Amino acid sequence: DNDGVADGADPAPLDPDVCGDTDTDTCDDCAVGTDDFGVLPDNDPNNDGTDTDGDGTCDAGEADSDNDGVVDGADIDPLNPDLCEDTDLDGCDDCAVGTDDFGPLPDNDPANDGTDTDGDGACDAGDADDDNDGVADGADPSSLDPDVCGDSDADTCDDCAVGTDDFGVLADNDPANDGADSDADGACDLGDGCPADPDKDDPGVCGCGNAETDTDGDGSEDCVDADDDNDGVADGADPSTLDPDLCGDADSDLCDDCSIGTDDLGPLADNDPANDGADGDGDGVCDLGDGCPADPGKDAPGVCGCGTADTDTDGDGSADCVDADDDNDGVADGADPSTLDPDLCGDADGDLCDDCTNGTDDFGPLPDNDTANDGVDGDGDGVCDLGDGCPTDPDKDDPGTCGCGVAETDTDSDGTPDCNDVCSTDPNKILPGDCGCGIDETDTDSDGTPDCIDDCPDDPGKTDPGVCGCGSADDDTDSDGTPDCSDNCPADPNKIEVGVCGCGVADTDTDTDGTPDCADVCPNDPGKTNPGVCGCGTADTDTDSDGTPDCVDDCVNDGAKTDPGICGCGVADTDTDGDGTPDCVDNCPADPGKTNPGVCGCGNADTDTDADGTPDCSDSCPGDPLKTDPGVCGCGTAETDTDSDGTADCADVCPADPNKTEPGVCGCGALETDSDGDGTPDCADACPADPNKTEPDVCGCGTSDTDSDADGTPDCVDACPADPNKTELGVC
User: Fold this and answer.
1) Are 577 and 586 contacting, i.e. CB atoms less than 8 angstroms apart?
2) pLDDT in tens, 449-484
3) CA torsion sign, 664 to 669 to 675 to 681?
4) Which of 37, 35, 46 is nearest to 12 (CA)?
């Protein structure tokens, strides 16, 4: 076969690919060869088959091709030293870390087969919660950090921020203990931009401790707004920066320039000194700031109060209203006939000269009243000349009626001096009059004609009896020829009797109903004398006897209604549940909270706690906005099926393996294939094609380790399989 090995030594002299195994590496030296039957030899012990691990034994004859410590039959990847099996079922291949790859040391070490972040014995690849913080890796934003797991209570602090035992067995996710909240605002300090401000968790524009108030709603916060209340006066000059009705008094009229304003906090300026309040007394000070709004002379009550000037006539520092002697003349105001004139104070000595006539210092502090120094008395009548009307007539100090030098004699004592009395001896008359002296000019009826010449002395309207006699005027006011004294309608030329309608109104009865027009409010309606509710010409018929005439009753046949309302005539607008909607259009008449059954029916609110569009009454997960039914995972846990195998992750121990929901023997990610049907999956069967063996043992897979002679050596390596005393032929 030209393979380079003589036929005597060649176990297959006709096959260039088989020639023997001189290096005993279990691979035929011609397995690879060079040119089959060609001229070149094919026997090359150094190139007689793949030797994956480079240990000098070719793969075909080696039990562990990749030298990872797991025989090829049990090795899920016999040519890869980093993949072999998962005997501890922790989801990580026992060779994942290894020692020396293809080197002589075994790589299968279940205790060191991959990162186990939380040290719980399950490597991360197969651990549902790598950091043991209580939150599954799928929901954990940092699955390898037990201090970070999410913020379920949205308080800006991670629920694991405080934790319990880091990678320990206890859960670290505790929303109720995830960080200090110094200002008790519901946002923990770690995520609170303003940890000392209970009203803010972000500095915003104004910074912590300062509210983001925008008093005037102009889009600019007060802390950066030059005019917080938009009244037209900058905050620095505004005495009340947050009140658009207070901004200062530029015109000093004691009224704030913004007291009337324009639009309060709106964009228009409110400061208008020319329109800052009424000035009722026109004194230049608006009423709002005027202490005396009805006194044009004062804008404050002062000492004397509004309406009374604080005048100090004598300049002694005390206002007249509280000064006992306003003119400082020495006579108290109560006894002083002229309280504001120091030269007039009264005549205590009765000499007709005012005691203050000469005085001393006018309004000065010295008294001016001096009875001994008040004037000369030329005629010696005891009345000083200054006050004597007849200074040269010792009998008179006043000219009187007759003048100085003429006595004021009144003979008849009628009060009129004889000098002016023509009837000086008649105490009742000073002139003869119509009747002459000595005859009384009595005019009993005061009609201007004395009784002495008046034929009707007791009738002021007549001096002659006339037609009607004294006491009755002969007037004919309406010129109808009948004197008023016998005319019962003296001002009505058409009537002399009052009749029904009275004087001045004809007793006409237009509709001939027996009631004169003057007393008939419906003079053209023979059926009515009063409009009633329906008016003249329309009867006040009340068909349903409900007290409301048909003319204003929109439900003429319904005694309970005068207006159709919502339900219409004949149907009461009853609102049983008092919700403002009558029962006739209320589909839930006994439920004040609903007028339509909705989804939940009357009596049950359509509350949607989690705002997912499904009312709580139909939502088996009312607090979970993503679910309406617990499903497999329960409320609050998504029905995520990462590997799309039909089993939710929450119930799938192998959530990333679409072919398995339990690790089984081979672990997640590895099929439980049993090629030889021996009940042991290939992943754990070192002889996956041999239904009778799971380990190669001595004879190898496919060959039974039968020991026919029971000598402890399998027949496959026992040259004397029927001789219990020998395993080699020996000499005999």
Assistant:
1) yes
2) 998 888 899 989 888 888 888 988 888 899 998 888
3) negative
4) 37
